[in-house]
Design a protein that fits this description.
alpha+beta; elongated; about 80 residues; Nucleotidyltransferase, domain 5
Length: about 80
């Protein structure tokens, strides 16, 4: 089966969704993304953890989908105005 994957690194979770040719969601995986608040008005997240969770959700979906699926595209979205320094 040909599928399209969407990887979303949001403010509270990282998730992967798999869609079939008719744009129906056929599988999902999600991990909670913690944040720290070092000072009033500041929020920090660990970029290495974001990457690790992204890989984990992609692998989880891939393991359930099996070798018969062919990924035709991968869309990636993240938090607006994100900066890693």
């Amino acid at each position: 089966m040909e599928i399209v994957l969407a990887l979303d690194a949001g403010t509270s979770a990282v998730r992967t969704l798999a869609f079939d040719r008719r744009a129906r969601v056929i599988d999902t995986a999600s991990r909670t993304l913690p944040a720290s608040f070092p000072h009033p008005g500041e929020v920090e997240q660990d970029p290495a953890l974001i990457a690790s969770l992204a890989v984990a959700t992609l692998r989880e979906v891939a393991s359930r989908r099996g070798a018969g699926d062919r990924v035709r595209a991968l869309g990636i979205t993240n938090q607006r105005e994100t900066t890693i320094a």
